[in-house]
Amino acid sequence: MRRPLNQIRACASRTAQPRWRRNSAARKLVFASHSVALIILAGCWQQALADPGGVTNIFKPLSEPAQEIKETSILVMVICGVIFSIVAGLLIYTIVRYRHRGGDETTEPPQIYGSNQIETAWTVLPILIVFVLILVTSRTIADVQNRKAPTGAIHSTVVGHQWWWEIRYPELGIVTANELHVPASTESSQQPTYLKLQSADVAHSFWVPQLNGKTDLIPNRENNMWIAPTEPGTYLGNCAEYCGTQHARMLLRVVVQTRSEFEKWVKEQQQAAVEDPGAAEGRKIFFGNSCVSCHAIRGTSAKGVFGPDLTHLMSRQTLASGTTPNSHQTLRAWISDPQQLKVGCLMPNMQLSDKEVDQIVAYLETLR
Ligand code: CUA
C-alpha cells in the first residue's frame, strides 16, 4: 500500500535533521556551550576596554595618524554594523515567522521568481555603499601618506631582523635596538618622527596600535610612516607579520618623551661606550670571542652588524626584543644560553664557563 505524501514528507524532514536537533538534551547542551562562549568573548572585550594600558588599544589613539584611522574605522564599523543588523534581523524574522508548523506538510510556500525592483535595489545599494567606503578610506590613506616632513622633524630608520628591531637616527649618530625614542608633540609645536622602514631578511610589520596603523618592512624596499604622539609614555607594539619561530617575541617599545627629556636621551646615546677598568677581564673575554663579529660597541673595535648595538645596552628596558626585562639575572641567563630564553634566535650558546659568563655580564653592565 502506498503511504500518503504528507507522511513521507514528515518522515523525511525528521531523518534529515541532525541528531542533536532531534534530541532536546543535546539541543540544550549546544545552546549552553554557545552562551558560555559568548559570555567569555564579552568578558575579553570588556577587559580590553577597561585596561587599555595592558592591551594596546586602537580605540585609544594618542597620535595623529592613529586618530584619523580610528575615525575611519568607526565609520566603516557603523556602516557594516547597520548592514549586519538588517541582514541578521531579516534572517531571524524569517526563521521564526516561517518556521515549520504542524499541519502544513501538504502545502508549498508561494514560489516567487524575478522582481526587477528587488534585484535593482540589492545591486545598486551595495555598489553605493562600497563606493562611499572606497572614498572615505582613500582620503584617509592619502592624507596620512602624503604628509611631508616639516623642518625640525626627527628622522629614524627602523630595520626589521629575525627577531629584533634595529633603530638608527642617521642625523643624530645614534644606533639602538627595540626601543624607539621620540619627542612628544604639544598643541603649540608639532614634533613628528618620520620612519624609514627596511628589512634585513624577511617581511616584518611595524605596528604600535595607539600611534599608527601597520606598515610592512619588506626586503629590498623602503616603506615610510610617521607618528606624532601627544602624550609622554611607553607605547607597546609588535611585529604584525609572521616572520618565523620567534615572531611573537619581536616586541617593540616607543618611548615618548618631552622635548627636554628626549634631548637628554640623545646626548647620552651619542656618548661613546664607557671604559671601566673594573670590568677589564670581561672586556677581554668579550673581545676574544666571536661576540664582536655580530655586535658593535661604539668607540671600540667591535663593529658587527648582525646583532643589536651594545654601546648603551643597559639603558634599554628589555632584552631580546621584549622577551624579558633587562636585569642582572636575565642578562646572565641570556649570555649563558640565549636559546633557553628565545629558541631559534640567531645568537648561539657560546659554551662559556660560569666564571666567564659572570665576567662578560660585569662588562656589559658597564655599558650604560
Ligand atoms: Cu618580525 Cu613577525
Structural commentary:
This protein is α+β, with helices and mostly antiparallel strands and 368 residues long. It has 11 helices and 12 strands. Strands 3-2-1-5-8 form a 5-stranded mixed β-sheet. A 5-stranded mixed β-sheet has the order 4-10-9-6-7. Helix 9 packs across helix 11. The longest helix is centred in the first third of the chain and has 34 residues. The chain is elongated. It starts with a helix and ends with a helix. Bound molecules: dinuclear copper ion. Dinuclear copper ion (CUA) binds next to loops. The site of dinuclear copper ion has 9 residues, from loops.
Largest sheet, spatial ordering of strands: 3-2-1-5-8
Please provide the count of β strands: 12
Ligand inventory reads: dinuclear copper ion
**Roughly what is the average pLDDT, rounded to an integer?**
87
Radius of gyration: 30 Å
> Unreliable segments (pLDDT under 50, ≥5 consecutive)?
1-16, 47-53
DSSP summary: helix tally: 11
Overall structural class, as computed from helix and strand content, comes to: alpha+beta
**Which geometry do the CA atoms define?**
elongated
> From N to C, what is the helix and strand string?
HHHHHEEEEEEEEEEHHHEEHHH
A few lines on this structure:
The chain is an alpha+beta fold and 368 residues long. The protein has helices at residues 5-16, 19-22, 24-50, 64-97, 116-145, 259-270, 280-288, 291-294, 328-336, 338-341, 354-364, and strands at 154-161, 164-169, 174-177, 179-183, 193-199, 204-207, 215-217, 223-227, 233-239, 251-257, 318-319, 324-325.
